[in-house]
């Protein structure tokens, strides 16, 4: 894909980052993310919403040079040696905050954070050279799905400027059910049922049904005891020019209960339709 393809509206993405071990255990997800990065037009910059930076109101990281945050404990020492020295984009951070404020969402730039593992782990596969500016947008986990969809809508115009909008999370995220010593364990059946419900609602264009997933989707609370890792999916949906056009990228599960699905939303999602994981 050449740079001239930026004339094509970029899709918005939802990617599952699963466990921090993804950084050293690529499984099926690492190659999938690498394929996405090599297939899409090269973005001018990237805005990522991660569930690991939770704030009361929206904050936009404005560091000139990003710093990696190893926001986890009890993992192999090799993980703590990994870096992702991407440039920041302070002017873009101010632009993002202004777009949100203009849309009625309280927001401000913030230099107190960096890139937590919800961002730098998938970015190491998507853009391994760390040469694309990246900024992180915080998550308001106390707010419902429609709020996060609205945040995505307010930032959707950035895609026409060559900015890639990414929600990072985990399609299912119940850490109590992990088979921690078996990353290749078979899919937990209830997580597959949860996925199929989501796909049916998406294909039907049932936005309100998706907003209410927590009370209607099978195994919703079991797959997400708290839903911060799924709220970023709604951000990615809202950030698309047409969320009903989407490509589901299936890389299965890791550790039995963490589904690692990715989605591309919008008219440009067809750019990823030929990837091996496209379903």
Write a brief caption for the model.
30% of the residues lie in helices and 17% in strands. The chain has 279 residues and is an alpha/beta fold.
Secondary structure elements and pairings:
Blueprint: E1 12-16, H1 29-39, E2 45-54, E3 58-61, H2 90-102, E4 107-110, H3 117-126, E5 134-139, H4 145-155, E6 163-169, H5 189-203, H6 207-211, H7 213-216, H8 220-223, H9 228-238, E7 246-249, E8 253-254, E9 258-259, E10 262-265
Parallel strand pairs: 1-6, 2-5, 2-6, 3-4
Antiparallel strand pairs: 1-10, 7-10, 8-9
Keywords: Dioxygenase, Metal-binding, Oxidoreductase, Zinc
Cofactor: Zn(2+)
Organism: Herbaspirillum robiniae
Characterization of this structure:
With 279 residues, the protein is α/β, with parallel strands linked by helices. The protein has one domain: Protocatechuate 4,5-dioxygenase, Chain B (3-Layer(aba) Sandwich), CATH 3.40.830. The chain has 9 helices and 10 strands. A 6-stranded mixed beta sheet has the order 5-2-6-1-10-7, with helices on both faces. Strands 3-4 form a two-stranded parallel sheet. A two-stranded antiparallel ribbon has the order 8-9. The two termini are 21 Å apart. The N terminus is likely disordered.
- Give a short account of the largest sheet: 6 strands, mixed
Give the strand order, joined by hyphens, for the main sheet. Answer: 5-2-6-1-10-7
Structural class per helix/strand content? alpha/beta
Within the CATH hierarchy, at the fold level, what is the topology?
A: Protocatechuate 4,5-dioxygenase, Chain B
Oligomer: single chain
- Form type: globular
Strand content: 15-25%
Rounded mean pLDDT is 94
**Which regions are unreliable across 5 or more consecutive residues at pLDDT < 50?**
1-6
How many domains make up the coordinates?
A: 1
Give a count of the beta strands, DSSP E runs of length 2 or more: 10
Question: What is the CATH superfamily classification?
Answer: LigB-like
Rg is 17 Å
What is the element string, with H for helices and E for strands?
A: EHEEHEHEHEHHHHHEEEE
**Distance separating the two termini:** 21 Å
Total number of helices: 9
Please report the first level of CATH classification, the CATH class: Alpha Beta
Helix share of residues?
A: 25-40%
Question: In CATH terms, what is the architecture?
Answer: 3-Layer(aba) Sandwich
């Amino acid at each position: 894909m050449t740079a001239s393809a930026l004339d094509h509206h970029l899709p918005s993405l939802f990617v599952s980052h699963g466990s921090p071990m993804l950084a050293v255990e690529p499984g099926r997800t690492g190659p999938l993310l690498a394929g996405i990065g090599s297939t899409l037009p090269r973005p001018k910059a990237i805005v990522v919403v991660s569930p690991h930076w939770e704030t009361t109101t929206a904050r936009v990281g404005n560091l000139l040079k990003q710093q990696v945050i190893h926001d986890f404990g009890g993992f192999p020492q090799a993980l703590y040696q990994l870096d992702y020295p991407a440039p920041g984009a302070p002017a873009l951070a101010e632009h993002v905050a202004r777009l949100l404020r203009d849309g009625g969402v309280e927001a401000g730039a913030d230099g107190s954070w960096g890139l937590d593992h919800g961002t730098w782990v998938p970015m190491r596969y998507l853009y391994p050279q760390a040469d694309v500016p990246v900024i992180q947008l915080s998550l308001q986990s106390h707010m419902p799905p429609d709020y996060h969809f609205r945040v995505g809508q307010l930032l959707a115009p950035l895609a026409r400027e060559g900015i890639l909008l990414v929600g990072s999370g985990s399609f299912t995220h119940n850490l109590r059910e992990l088979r921690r010593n078996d990353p290749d364990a078979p899919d937990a059946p209830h997580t597959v049922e949860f996925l199929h419900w989501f796909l049916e609602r998406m294909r039907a264009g049932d936005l309100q049904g998706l907003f209410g997933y927590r009370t209607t989707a099978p195994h919703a609370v079991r797959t997400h005891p708290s839903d911060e890792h799924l709220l970023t999916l709604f951000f990615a949906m809202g950030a698309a020019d047409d969320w009903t056009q989407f490509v589901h990228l299936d890389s299965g599960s890791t550790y039995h209960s963490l589904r690692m699905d990715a989605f591309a939303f919008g008219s440009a999602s067809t750019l990823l339709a030929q990837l091996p994981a496209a379903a």
